[in-house]
Amino acid sequence: MTSVHQEVARPGEGRVTAPSGPRGRSGRRRTRRWSHLLFVAPALAMYGFFVLRPLATSVQYSLYDWNGISASTWVGLANYRRVLTDSDQLLTIAHAFELIVFFTVIPVFLGLVAAALMHGQPRGSFATVSRTVLFIPQVIPLVAAGIVWDWVYSSNGVANQILTWVGLGGVTRPWLADFDTALPAVGLIGAWVMLGLCTLLLLTGIGKIDLSLYEAARIDGAGRVREFVHVTLPGLRREIGVCVTITMVAALASFDIIYISTQGGPGRSTMVPGVEIYRLAFTEREIGQASAMAVILMVLVLVTIIPVQRLTQRADA
């Protein structure tokens, strides 16, 4: 039979017994578990107060018709039905998904190309300047970036001046004031902002790939393209997943750049959920409708991002 106690000698004392069997081990495990919870308790408290509490409040408000001042009226799911049946509301959601092409596809693709070209280059002033220039949009406030790009896209802005200089003066226009070009023009701003972050993340990921894989590919006669496809891309699955997640969230929840540059115009050609929520809450005073749109936006983000995370984890397994 196994002993559940053992004698332990302490200096200056007699021999005492201490638990050493399954009960003692389970007790120590419980103690460690509670100590871990104590360490994360402050973070959990902050998360609950600043994230879960506002989320629960938004869900509650979405079930009422309320202007933020007078008494509220229970309407149940009417606000959600309006979002999902109103053509204007659905158009704002469609615009957010269109922006994924600019915020996600373009930055990730160009980031892969730029990272592959910069990888292996000798460290020097050119490499340092390249990384700095690409990362500048991340340190510039988006409000300032929106103001600058508003000037670039204006009738007498840099974009039209360059087009005129290369002989394409016939296509010049106020890009942000044109119904057909406003959304792509705003999307290019987002692509510019996200490109530097994606490039640096992917460049860091390439640096973690085992160099022996590249050497083996060269021995087998692989060129730069095959080396990129068969060695670099498989080694960057995790980094690509991070880039796609960050940029898709930025596209679906975009607000700053669009509000500063177009405020959702001309008409509703660049209206996205973030700007629509702001308009409903603070201009139209429809707090319940704005809350319903916010909850639906959160669900759309989760539905879009969770598959990306699952694919990334499956690839790493």
Description:
This protein has 317 residues and is mostly helical. It has two domains: 50 residues, no CATH class; 239 residues, MetI-like fold, CATH 1.10.3720. It is built from 13 helices and four strands. The strands form two sheets. Strands 1-2 form a two-stranded antiparallel ribbon. Strands 3-4 form a two-stranded antiparallel ribbon. The protein is flat and about 75 Å long. The two termini are 43 Å apart.
Outline of this structure?
The chain is mainly alpha-helical. Helix content is 70%, strand content 4%.
Radius of gyration: 28 Å
* Secondary structure category: mainly alpha
Overall pLDDT level: 86
Q: Could you tell me the strand content as a percent range?
A: under 5%
Any idea of the CATH topology of the largest domain? Answer: MetI-like fold
Total helical segments: 13
Largest sheet: 2 strands, antiparallel
Report the span from N to C terminus.
43 Å
Order of helices and strands: EEHEEHHHHHHHHHHHH
- Percent helix: over 70%
How many domain regions?
2
Could you give the order of strands across the largest sheet?
1-2
Highest-level CATH class of the largest domain: Mainly Alpha
CATH 4th-level superfamily of the largest domain: MetI-like
The low-confidence runs, each spanning 5 or more residues with pLDDT under 50, are: 1-9
What's the architecture of the largest domain in CATH terms? Orthogonal Bundle
The coarse silhouette is flat
Number of strands: 4
